[in-house]
Amino acid sequence: MDTRTPTRYIDRPDDVAFAARALADGAVVAVAFANFYALVARPEAECVRRLNRAKGRSADQVGSITVAAYRIPSMFDWSRISPRLPERRVRALMEILYGAGPFGFRGPAADRLPDHLTQHDRGVRTTQVIAPGVLCPSNAFIERAASEAGVDHLAITSANRSRHLTGVDEEPAHWKADRLAADFAHLPDLVLLAHRDEAAARAVYAVYLPTSVTLLSFHQPEGEREEPPVLIVDRHGSLHVDAVRRAAAPLGLQVRLAADVGQRLRVRAYDDALV
User: Fold this and answer.
1) A single Gene Ontology molecular function, please (predicted)?
2) Using one digit for the tens of pLDDT, what is the confidence trace for 46-96?
3) CATH no. for residue 50?
4) Which of 95, 118, 139, 208 is the most exposed place for a label (fewest CB within 10 A)?
């Protein structure tokens, strides 16, 4: 591991406090995130651009946001979802899925969110919220860092280098801290907030692959009249779509894969075995 990136741990309050202050001062934090790792930074445009450049992708690529679990609904504008899609059912599904583990939802963005953390989809201004699930100790870091930074949300991205930089078809997220640190050794102020026991962290989320989260969209552009409205899996990641469907079905919600979603995301392979 790069000596400039000493390991700190997600279960140590002093380390969480250090990382939160560093993020507020502009550093990128690689944080233990359920059963893998994510990169988190302040939400301002220049910080998001720096995060993108660190990964080797376009500086202006739209970012995702992360927040403590109780703040998730406030990131969306619920007045802009389909009137045929009951808000209470979508909120209930959020509670179920975030209650179980890492997940992502995309929906109409709250007006206060900046343009660099939103994207337009067929006339709807959307944002995507990536969260580790309520059981993950990273929630304490996310809340502390947002408070230190004086904001109510942070920018987040997967802990990997862009395929545009590496030249391979896909670069799965890291689930080992030392390999992550090696890939991002060019960031002199990177703070690494690691799992104390990575194997134990993966065991907690046995039905989740240690890779980027599954992303479910609940906005429905005007003119689309599916009855009942269908929630769309924009990215088939750590949680299998069948598990998402099982959670949604008792709420009367249907789930299908987006037309352009191919195979489920791969898990990063390392030289040594998955132990």
Assistant:
1) double-stranded RNA binding
2) 999 999 999 999 999 999 999 998 899 999 999 999 888 899 999 999 999
3) 3.90.870.10
4) 95
